[in-house]
Structure to design on (224 residues):
């Protein structure tokens, strides 16, 4: 369902000087609504990169809960003072605090032209809480993007990143645990949105950034 107005579908052909895909808008022949969507992807799937490409193209807000929580902590806001010690200890931030920061972000003016949530919701209770926040503003979740990557490929990517960043805590055993935890948490959330009739667009996340981006574009076109 179209939420507000129209904006051209992103295309994957143009490139920046650095060789990365630069999405751009097509004319009125291929329009999708200004929507609220969610992007899911396991660690190492390139979720953040694809989220940024989509939101840059559509002119919508990229809402990353990790970025929001870190920004609040750095700003020293009342919410940030609650979040900071939790982040420093490496613990999971309680749902009630995440819900507050997401609700606060969704009230900002730039989200009137749509938004893509990245890193939230991670559980069914969070998904229900998000529905309540959006319903208060007359907004639905219009689509879910799910990047699917083979576990062996994810492990290879994460080990490569760990070597580059000198992260000794990322090893095959810890990565396997993280991926298993991700699947355990995410599968019920995807089932929740399937059950509500929200389009869940499953994308093959293997290959280059360009290749994955083209698949995302093709999937988004089905929403027209």
């Amino acid at each position: 369902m179209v939420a507000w107005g129209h904006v051209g579908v992103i295309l994957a052909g143009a490139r920046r000087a650095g060789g990365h895909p630069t999405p751009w808008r097509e004319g009125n022949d291929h329009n999708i609504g200004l929507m609220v969507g969610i992007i899911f992807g396991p660690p190492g799937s390139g979720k953040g990169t694809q989220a940024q490409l989509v939101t840059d193209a559509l002119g919508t807000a990229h809402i990353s809960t990790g970025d929001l929580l870190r920004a609040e902590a750095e700003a020293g806001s009342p919410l940030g003072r609650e979040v900071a010690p939790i982040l420093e200890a490496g613990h999971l931030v309680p749902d009630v605090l995440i819900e507050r920061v997401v609700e606060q972000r969704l009230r900002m003016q730039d989200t009137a032209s749509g938004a893509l949530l990245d890193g939230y919701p991670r559980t069914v209770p969070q998904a229900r809480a998000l529905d309540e926040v959006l319903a208060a503003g007359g907004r639905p979740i219009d689509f879910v993007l799910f990047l699917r990557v083979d576990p062996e490929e994810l492990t290879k990517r994460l080990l490569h990143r760990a070597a580059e960043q000198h992260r000794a805590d990322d090893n095959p055993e810890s990565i396997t645990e993280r991926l298993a935890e991700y699947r355990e948490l995410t599968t019920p959330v995807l089932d929740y949105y399937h059950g509500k009739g929200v389009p869940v667009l499953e994308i093959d996340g293997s290959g280059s950034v360009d290749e994955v981006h083209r698949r995302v574009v093709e999937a988004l076109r089905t929403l027209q």
